[in-house]
Amino acid sequence: MILYEVYWNLIEKHGFTDNWYNSKDTGGNIIFAQLLIDGMKLQPCLPTFVDARDAIIEADRINNNGDNFDELWAGFAKRGLGVNAKSPGIEDFNVPKKSEGTSSTTEKDAAVSTSAAGITILLPLLAMRSLILMQ
Q1: Residue 130 has pLDDT above 70, yes or no
Q2: d(CA 31, CA 114)
Q3: Assigned superfamily of 2-109
Q4: CA-based end-to-end distance of the chain
């Protein structure tokens, strides 16, 4: 249900496109599909809802200079995944102002941390962004 809120917010802003095969189209449904796929590329393994939310918002920042910031946050916050939501199970319905951003997004800009067998590996987000741009 959370992603439906985001989907319809983007369609309301950008309209709907019948041609799903043109990834360069500007319809809200096409933008949503691209953000969802690119968000999956940015999120960590075994993501929480908060991780997935942050990755989709980051994908919009990379792809569209954050043009859909308000629509994305409104959709997430409407279903309890607002700026102060925590996993597991702490809901929040607040939306940040665009100029504020979020602390979790800022932390992800610095690095993504993955733990394997007690060893913490830091992967610069810049390297992850280059994977998206290589498409």
Answers
A1: no
A2: 29
A3: Neutral Protease Domain 2 (1.10.390.10)
A4: 29
